[in-house]
Amino acid sequence: MHNILAETANRKKSVWKRLGEIMVEMIIIVFAVSFAVFMERQRELHHEENEVKEFLIGLKTDLKNDIAEMEEDKDSYKAQAKWMAYFGKEEKISKDSLKRYEWILWNNTHLLVNNGRYEGFKSSGKINTIENTELRNNILDLYQETIVALTNNTQGYINLKKDFHRLIYQGRKNEGKENDNLAEVLQSQEVKNYCMRLRFTGEPVRRYDSAISRSQRIIELIDGEYREK
C-alpha cells in the first residue's frame, strides 16, 4: 500500500513537472514569436522612416524649384499690370514701346508645379507615415488647396487673355510686316477695355504669395526634422 501511494505521488509530481516544462516551452515560443514580430515591425518602421526622409528631402528640392518659378511668375504678372495699364490708357503708343513690350500682350503665365513626387507618395498611401502633423497638414494644404486656388485663379486670367487675343486678331493685318497695324488695333476702345481689365493682377500675385509662404514653411519644417540647411 505504501509503495502504491508513493508511486501515485511520484506520478503526480511527474505530471506537474511535465506541465511546468510545457508552460516554460510555451512561454519561450510566445516570447520568440513576439520578439520576431517586434523586430519585423521595427524593420518596417525603419524602412518607413527612410522612405519618409527620402520623400521629404526630395520634396524640399521640388519646393525650392517651385518657389523660384513662382517668383518669376509674380514678376511677370506685375509687369503685365504695368504695361496693360499703359496700353489701355495711352492714346498714341510709340513703336519703340510696342516693339519692346509687345510680349506682354501675348504672354500667358501659369505655374508648372513639380507635384509628381507628392502625387506618387500620396497615391501609395504613405502620406500618413509623416509623423509631424504640422508638416503633413501643410503639405496637404499646399497641394490640395493653395496650389489649386492659384492655378484656378491664373486660368481665369489666361482665359480672359485668350479672348483679348481673339479680339486683336480680328482686326490685325499684315502681322510682322512693315505695315503691321497692331498699334492701330490697340487704339480701339474695345481692346483698351480688355487692357484695363487685364491690368488687375493683384489676386494672382496674392495667390502666388500664399503658395510661396506655405512652401517656405514646409521647407523650414523639413529642416527642423533633419537639421539640414
Topology diagram in text:
Blueprint: H1 2-89, H2 95-106, H3 116-123, H4 133-171, H5 182-185, H6 189-198, H7 202-226
Main attributes of the structure:
229 residues, mainly alpha, 7 helices
Question: What do these coordinates show?
Answer:
This protein is an all-alpha fold and 229 residues long. The protein has one domain (2-226). It is built from seven helices and no strands. Helix 1 (2-89) packs antiparallel against helix 6 (189-198), helix 1 runs antiparallel to helix 7 (202-226) and helix 4 (133-171) packs antiparallel against helix 6. The relative contact order is 0.13.
Compact summary:
With 229 residues, the chain is mainly α. The protein is built from 7 helices and no strands.
Mean pLDDT value: 85
Low-confidence stretches: none
Q: How many DSSP helices?
A: 7
Radius of gyration, in Å, reads: 35 Å
Terminal-residue CA separation: 88 Å
Biggest beta sheet summary: none
Characterize the quaternary organization of these chains: single chain
Using DSSP, what is the number of strands? 0
Domain count: 1
Q: Please provide the ordered H/E string of secondary-structure elements.
A: HHHHHHH
**What percentage of the residues does DSSP assign to strands (E)?**
under 5%
Q: Report helical residue fraction.
A: over 70%
Structural class: mainly alpha
Mass-distribution shape: rod-shaped
